[in-house]
Design brief:
Layout (H helix, E strand, L loop, with lengths): L1 H9 L28 E5 L7 H9 L2 H12 L5 E6 L7 E3 L4 E5 H13 L6 H24 L5 H18 L2 H19 L19 H15 L15 H29 L1
Helix pairs in contact: 1-9, 2-4, 3-5, 4-5, 5-6, 5-7, 6-7, 6-8, 7-8, 8-9
Length: 269
């Protein structure tokens, strides 16, 4: 099992972009029985202001593709992935319910951020940020499933690393998504938002700063594939000095998650 996970971590496969955002509105899937293991996806009916956002999320299959990617690693205790209207609370992982909530209203928030920076249309960017958000929350789920004793900041950093790992694993397409996620953090920092888009206001101080998170994502990108990402070096977010250590940083965090996931796999056999 460990060897299989290690192979999966080192195999880069490009992800599909998904269908158009003009998909029909999601039905309420709450009554659908959840599998006993792995990540499963369902949608709640959106509040009226979120109908277009809900259609976007389902149309781009962000949660379905993310759940498939995670389930290719390991099937542990069941984790529900729910699209829903959150009223501005932000996407999050609920450890008591073992549920990831991806918020329809995050779509509008991310679109506003990128369109404010002159990106129109911003569909690709919004989908990329939501993919990173999904994997970040999945990282929290694995911390929970593993029973890891991490303080708040360490857990947030580990979740960011898991998100970077999963996107890099998608190959060139995932690397582009991770670049967009780093850009989102940079834009949020420029906008003076003290927290992280897609996170609940009450827990924002648990995260590293926006610029640190952006820099870390770019460092992992460069460390994983210096040839394809050489343009990142010498920028304001990735100095040449740090870039020289990014290969080691990438391998360290990849191997740490590899061992953690192997532990979950062994427990589920």
């Amino acid at each position: 099992m460990y060897a299989g996970i290690a192979s999966a971590l080192l195999t880069l496969s490009a992800g599909a972009c998904g269908p158009s955002a003009t998909s029909s509105l999601p039905e309420d899937d709450e009554g659908r029985p959840a599998p006993r293991a792995g990540f499963s996806v369902r949608y709640e009916l959106p509040a009226a202001p979120d109908r277009a956002n809900a259609a976007f999320l389902r149309g781009h299959r962000v949660m379905e593709q993310g759940a498939t990617d995670v389930n290719e690693f390991v099937r542990a205790g069941a984790v529900a992935v729910v699209g829903r209207s959150c009223g501005g609370e932000g996407s999050a992982y609920d450890p008591e319910a073992r549920r990831i909530e991806i918020c329809y209203d995050d779509v509008a928030q991310e679109r506003e951020l990128f369109e404010g920076a002159g990106v129109r249309p911003a569909d690709v960017e919004v989908a990329a940020v939501l993919a990173e958000t999904f994997f970040h929350e999945a990282g929290h789920a694995f911390v929970d499933l593993l029973g890891l004793e991490l303080d708040d900041r360490a857990e947030e950093d580990a979740a960011d690393q898991f998100a970077a790992l999963m996107l890099i694993r998608r190959g060139a397409a995932g690397e582009r998504q991770l670049r967009v996620a780093a850009r989102e953090y940079e834009l949020s920092a420029a906008a003076g938002d003290a927290g992280t888009a897609g996170q609940e206001a009450g827990v924002r101080d648990e995260h590293s700063s926006h610029l640190v998170r952006a820099s870390n994502h770019l460092c992992y990108l460069y460390g994983a594939d210096p040839t394809r990402n050489t343009d990142l070096v010498g920028t304001k977010l990735l100095s040449r000095e740090r870039a020289s250590r990014c290969g080691e940083e990438w391998r360290g965090m990849r191997d740490a998650w590899q061992k953690r996931l192997a532990s979950v796999a062994a427990a589920s056999d």
